[in-house]
C-alpha cells in the first residue's frame, strides 16, 4: 500500500524512522498553520487498550505550537466520550488535521509493529463498536492477535508490548514536534 508506513517498535531506530515519516507527511500542514491534533484513544481499564492514553500521558509536558494532544491516562478518550471530544475539537478549531492514535489487534507477526495510514481511524472495530471515524490519518500499534475473543485479547495483552509501542510512538511524535518547531523558527518571512 502506498499510503501505509510500518515500523517494528523494537527496532533500534523505530522512533526516528516514524518521527521522520510524520515530519515528511505533516510539515506542509503545519506550515499552512492548520492545527494538528493527535487524538489518543483508549482506556487504562484494559492493558491492550491503554496504548492511546499512555502515549498522551508521555506527551503531556511537551511544548508545542499549534500541535495538540487529546487523550491521556488522566483524561482518556474512549467509546463513551469519543463523540463529545470530536464535537469539542470541531467547535474549538478551524479545519484541524486530526491523527487518530489507537491500539489494534492483528496477525501474530505484526504484534509490536506500528502502522500509519493516510485514512481515518475506525476505533472499536475489534469489539464491534459503532463509533465515529476519526481524522485524516491514523497511527495504530498492534498489541495482540485478533481472534474470536478480542475482548479477552485486550485484557490479556503483555504490558511490555504496549509500553514498547507507547515509547516508540510518543518518542516519534516528540521528534516530529521538535523538528517541526526548530525548522519553523529558521524560516524567514521577509
UniProtKB/TrEMBL annotation:
GO terms, molecular function: peptidase activity
InterPro entries with a match to the protein in the record: Pept_HybD-like_dom_sf, YyaC
One Pfam family this sequence matches: DUF1256
GO BP terms, alphabetized: proteolysis
Keyword vocabulary terms for this entry: Hydrolase, Protease
Source organism superkingdom: Bacteria
Name this protein carries in UniProt: Spore protease YyaC
Organism expressing this protein natively: Clostridium saudiense
Amino acid at each position: 500500500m502506498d499510503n501505509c508506513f510500518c515500523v517494528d517498535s523494537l527496532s533500534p531506530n523505530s522512533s526516528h524512522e516514524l518521527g521522520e515519516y510524520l515530519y515528511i507527511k505533516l510539515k506542509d500542514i503545519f506550515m499552512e498553520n492548520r492545527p494538528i491534533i493527535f487524538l489518543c484513544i483508549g482506556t487504562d481499564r484494559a492493558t491492550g487498550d491503554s496504548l492511546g492514553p499512555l502515549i498522551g500521558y508521555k506527551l503531556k509536558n511537551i511544548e508545542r505550537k499549534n500541535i495538540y494532544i487529546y487523550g491521556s491516562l488522566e483524561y482518556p478518550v474512549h467509546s463513551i466520550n469519543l463523540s463529545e471530544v470530536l464535537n469539542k475539537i470541531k467547535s474549538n478549531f478551524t479545519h484541524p488535521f486530526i491523527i487518530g492514535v489507537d491500539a489494534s489487534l492483528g496477525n501474530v507477526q505484526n504484534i509490536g509493529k506500528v502502522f500509519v495510514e493516510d485514512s481515518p481511524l475506525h476505533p472499536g472495530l475489534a469489539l464491534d463498536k459503532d463509533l465515529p471515524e476519526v481524522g485524516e490519518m491514523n497511527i495504530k500499534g498492534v498489541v495482540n492477535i485478533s481472534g474470536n475473543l478480542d475482548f479477552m485479547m485486550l485484557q490479556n495483552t503483555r504490558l511490555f508490548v504496549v509500553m514498547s509501542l507507547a515509547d516508540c510512538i510518543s518518542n516519534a511524535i516528540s521528534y516530529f514536534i521538535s523538528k517541526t518547531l526548530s525548522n519553523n523558527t529558521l524560516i524567514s518571512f521577509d
